[in-house]
Known about the structure:
The protein is mainly alpha-helical and 79 residues long. The chain is 34% helix and 8% strand. One of its GO terms (molecular function) is D-ribulokinase activity.
Amino acid sequence: MFPTFTSISTFELLNKMLESMMNESKAPFLAILMKDLHVLPDFHGNWSPMADPVSKGVICGLTLDSSEKQLALLYLATV
């Protein structure tokens, strides 16, 4: 059987999931959920304010957790 599609977008779903996680953990603000997860998206070099074409990207704090909640946190870290 095929999954049922709804009118909610992927981004709305992720945002609702993050809001739910924030309420469950009683976090004072959303960003505290990713206190151990950091993303520097310089995978093609850093071009501002001072150009560094050899700069490398970093994702720090990855675990083997592949749950929907962990993927939502990765989404939040890249926004």
